[in-house]
Write a structure and sequence with these properties.
This protein is α/β, with parallel strands linked by helices. It folds into two domains: about 230 residues, Spore Coat Polysaccharide Biosynthesis Protein SpsA, Chain A (Alpha-Beta Complex), CATH 3.90.550; about 90 residues, no CATH class. The chain is about 40% helix and about 15% strand. It is built from nine helices and twelve strands. It has a nine-stranded mixed sheet, with helices on both faces. Strand 3, helix 2 and strand 4 form a beta-alpha-beta unit. Helix 1 packs parallel to helix 2 and helix 7 runs antiparallel to helix 8. The protein starts with 9 loop residues before the first strand and ends in a 15-residue tail after the last helix. GO terms for molecular function: transferase activity.
Amino acid sequence: MNLDNLHANISVVAQSPDLDPESVDVVVTLPTFKRPEHLLKTLASLKAQVTKRRFAIIVMENEAEKREGAEAAKQLFEIGEYTGLLIIAHDRGNCNAYNAGWLTALKMFPNFSSLLVIDDDEIADASWIENMCITRQSYGVDFVGGPQLPVFARQEHAIWSAHPVFSPHYTQTGIVPIIYSSGNLLIGRNVLEAMPFPFLDLTFNFMGGGDSDFISRSVVKGFTIAWCAEAPVYETIPARRVEADWIRARALRNGVISTLIEKRKRADEPFGAAKTVAKSLVLLALSPFRAVVKVAQTGSLSIGIYQVYIGLGRVLAEFGYSNEQYRQPEKN
């Protein structure tokens, strides 16, 4: 396997000695940034997968200086504990890391049919790979999404599991119109071969939402999606993420992303920009009423006010507001 000239901003720093690229049917991409301890837990959950499918892992280290994740995992790849590659994605940012891993998969593994994505703060269920792939085959789709179930660092925070920031968008397996996250995702090779590179738009590099935008653009091109409720990953939620300012920032960010994606979808429509603005204003105007309903349904003021922040974020996007939560990872 030729590792030279993979890409100017990608370096391969380790590979498993028994790697046979042509035999790999599934590639799992795993971006990491300053979470070396949890990265090892995520890798261990991948090694524990119950499947006969031949899969390889690509870890994308996105901290190009200290490389804590790469240092923690390098020897494990070199001794064959894990099958696959460890790369450095030298350009910082969420989108750059994903782009590096997905491009590497296309260039290094000529016969894979499905690419899966998991984050370095998640643990895969033992049947994750198998159930995601079975769902793709059963429904004949191009994407499969699965639930990211929160595991809170403090037990008393478990009451937050019903909050829309943490709860899955769907509960049953089947065809769905859209999914919003790459934290638990399967992408068909055919999608990556059809979509332009860079796959994820760097506009979203430190904001997040590049995955939602990519999926949205793919759906416009005719690619289809299913949901697999039987393929969860378990996301570790630090105490920081249930603080009011983090929830508020995430909600505003989600509203901004919603506007940016809708603008792109309507770019070629007559009065598309005006329609997006009008929808944002209507959603903001309705958000207090929706908030009251949600509070009555759930008893949670935070779930209610989330509706208002989404509407506000949509309108703020029209004025150039962007909340780049990933710019300062220590606060995320």
